[in-house]
Amino acid sequence: IPKGITEDQLIRCVGLGQPGANGGADGDLFLHVRFEKHPDFRVIGSDLHTELALAPWEAVLGAEIAVHTLEGKVRIKIPPHTEDGTELRIKGHGLPTGTSGEKANLFAKIRVVTPDKTTENERRLWQQLADQSSFKPRNT
Question: pTM score > 0.70 for this model?
Fold first, then answer.
């Protein structure tokens, strides 16, 4: 399989198809490329897409986070006040883009998540933040 191949491309295998009629040359075999689903990444062209969960305080304050790539983990900086749904580009961590060896990008879509359970102290801290904050997410 050639480096840099993308989903839905055809690979032509010359002479590997049906035997030729009346002594003619054998036909060609065409392979239609399909990618198996990956548990962490979606492929669009040569770019990879993933989701990155952040705690609310990481989204507000900014953070340095480890992101899984095909080659292992890389650390990226999350800017302060990053919104849910923001896509961050991690250059050069996608799939190869042809035979040059250059790689496409990995895009990490931010998902701000909240804890399933909180301790009494955590609830008190959240309430304290709510009471002191001037932030109003809805105009009602």
Answer: yes
